[in-house]
Amino acid sequence: MHRTAVALGGAAALALTLAVGAQTASAHQTTPGRTAPAGSSHVAAQPLIIGGQYDSAPWSADVHYTKNGSGSICSGAIIAAQWVLTAGHCSGDNEVVYVGNPELKSGTEGQVDKKYTDPDTKGDLLLLHLSKPITTTYLSLGSANPPSGSTVQIWGWGDTKQGGTHSDRLKSGHMKVNGTNCSDLQGGPALCLVKGPDMSAKGDSGGPALYNGVEVGLDSKGDDTTKSYAEIAPHRSWIEKTAGV
Description:
Elements: H1 24-27, E1 34-35, E2 60-67, E3 70-80, E4 83-87, E5 93-99, E6 108-116, E7 125-130, E8 137-138, E9 151-156, E10 171-177, E11 182-183, E12 189-194, E13 208-211, E14 214-222, E15 226-231, H2 236-243
Antiparallel strand pairs: 1-8, 2-3, 2-5, 3-4, 4-7, 5-6, 6-7, 9-10, 9-13, 10-12, 11-12, 12-15, 13-14, 14-15
């Protein structure tokens, strides 16, 4: 993630940059909270912004896999004890996720044993099923799109500058919603997010966009000015049927 004073590159998969002095209201968004089912009560939301540029969230998930013999990384979020939500194009072989630690590959490890895409609604979403449950605070999902002109908070481990490498620590930033006339990488409905103080970049694919503390989209594709975040709302019934949330 990096300041947008310089043009950001590429965009299919996206990285975050947090500008100093991000909008006050957005900076005080809080971590949503559904807790583990094993007797845990609802956990109070915790602040998301820590130290400005770098952040921490118990539901954060970095997704690692191989494709065509090369290692790849995406971002994502754990939404239930055995379910991680990420981008559909973040699918390959030998998938493993790390949950709940801002340091890359340092969280609780989860092995992926099954994966699912929505068979009825086109979209760049992927549900990863973990072989064993992980107890943490899970990210809640929204059922409606944020209004145009609103600010959302974006998360990921993507590149910190154009042509750079992914971040070793989780970052967050803020972008503006500019309507819903975009489409994601699979041709499904997507939020149009425009660069403001911050921008997503390569490596942020699958990372969530939060509005009022719930996930409303995930990073799918983009260019130097606009990013397409696959909408969550059209897929809520499929997610609930598959993951139970």
